[in-house]
Design a protein that fits this description.
About 35% of the residues lie in helices and about 25% in strands. The radius of gyration is 21 Å and the shape is globular. Helix 3 crosses helix 4. Keywords: Signal.
Length: about 200
């Protein structure tokens, strides 16, 4: 069967529209846009007083879930003791109790980040400690009454320059959280996952 030249041209032009979107997103052609979006989120988090709030705003802006709410899923059995350097940053001695909490933060079904949190229970209220121990509430939401802010002391790009696809982890932040009275209450290590780009 002979295909008319005009019909052939129309089919060629329509081919990108018929290609599954997932294929385009995983190809090299989609990487620059994905990298740009990851850089935008990275900047948003660095500029925010709360990573949870920044993620929730991102989730809402890109209609990733209804409602657009960040939920922490506790990962038990992975307790890590605070190092001497962490205790120094938190301003506590070797005898002060520092607890570790590991969570996966989700927006709907999308894994947004994996986070480790070392916090000082004695600097939080009894209700805050209960919520951290017994519920899946994100740390940032639990301590909101303290009007916290964060200071990032390390940020690392995990996206290799020669990557051929979007990596599982995009970037990592390490920060100390302070109360409005400038008292350190926690140190966090956050690894942001490719789920943040799931709206593409």
């Amino acid at each position: 069967m002979t295909i008319h030249p005009r019909l052939l041209a129309a089919l060629v032009l329509a081919l990108p529209l018929l290609t599954p979107r997932a294929h385009a997103d995983s190809s090299g052609a989609g990487l620059p846009q994905a990298q740009s979006q990851a850089e935008t989120l990275n900047a948003n988090i660095l500029a925010s007083s709360s990573a949870t709030l920044a993620l929730e705003q991102w989730c809402a802006a890109h209609a990733m879930a209804t409602p657009a709410r960040i939920v922490a899923r506790l990962q038990r059995g992975n307790e890590q003791a605070a190092s001497a350097e962490q205790r120094t940053r938190l301003g506590v001695d070797a005898h002060t109790v520092v607890k570790h909490r590991r969570v996966h933060l989700y927006c709907g079904d999308h894994l947004m980040s994996e986070a480790d949190n070392w916090y000082v229970p004695s600097r939080l209220s009894a209700e805050m400690n209960r919520l951290l121990e017994e519920t899946d509430t994100p740390f940032g939401k639990v301590v909101q009454p303290l009007a916290p802010y964060r200071r990032t002391f390390a940020a690392r790009n995990l996206w290799a320059a020669d990557a051929q696809e979007v990596p599982a982890a995009l970037f990592e932040h390490r920060a100390v959280l302070y109360t409005a009275a400038h008292q350190p209450i926690a140190e966090v290590r956050e690894s942001y996952q490719r789920g943040v780009l799931a709206f593409r």
